[in-house]
């Protein structure tokens, strides 16, 4: 009986966890590390990407989604921080494509 309860609890936890997925509008967001790549672009604001499980990949997806939410198309990565099971990417969001 205890095993059934434990397995049921674990299944509920797994089903409640949300995997960050790349939004449609974030598909074209570029992440860059060289400030020359944003020369001539307009600064939109500071943006972060976070993951509480320590996944750099998920934090990058979160960063791209958050950049797109600001209607920006490029994020200049300033800093990455891993602290235990948390991963954070700090960046500046830019709008480089003036066609929009």
Question: Whole-number average pLDDT?
Answer: 86
Number of spatially distinct domains: 1
Oligomer type: single chain
CA-atom Rg in angstroms: 17 Å
- Percent strand equals 25-35%
Count the strands?
Answer: 4
Largest sheet: 4 strands, mixed
What would the CATH topology be?
Translation Initiation Factor IF3
Low-confidence stretches: 8-17
Q: What proportion of the residues is helical, as a percent range?
A: 25-40%
| Name given to the CATH homologous superfamily | Hypothetical protein apc22750. Chain B
Reading off the top of the CATH hierarchy, the class is best stated as Alpha Beta
Indicate the CATH architecture: 2-Layer Sandwich
Order of helices and strands: HEEHEE
Write down the overall geometry. globular
Sequence of strands across the biggest β-sheet: 1-3-4-2
Short description:
The protein contains 2 helices and 4 strands; from the N terminus they run H-E-E-H-E-E. The protein is an alpha+beta fold and 100 residues long.
């Amino acid at each position: 009986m205890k095993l059934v309860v434990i397995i049921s609890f674990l299944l509920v936890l797994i089903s409640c966890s949300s995997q960050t997925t790349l939004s449609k509008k974030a598909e074209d967001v570029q992440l860059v590390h060289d400030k020359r790549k944003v020369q001539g672009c307009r600064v939109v604001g500071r943006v972060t990407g976070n993951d509480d499980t320590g996944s750099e990949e998920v934090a990058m997806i979160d960063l791209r989604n958050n950049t797109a939410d600001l209607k920006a198309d490029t994020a200049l990565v300033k800093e990455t921080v891993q602290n235990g099971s948390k991963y954070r990417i700090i960046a500046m969001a830019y709008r480089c494509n003036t066609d929009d």
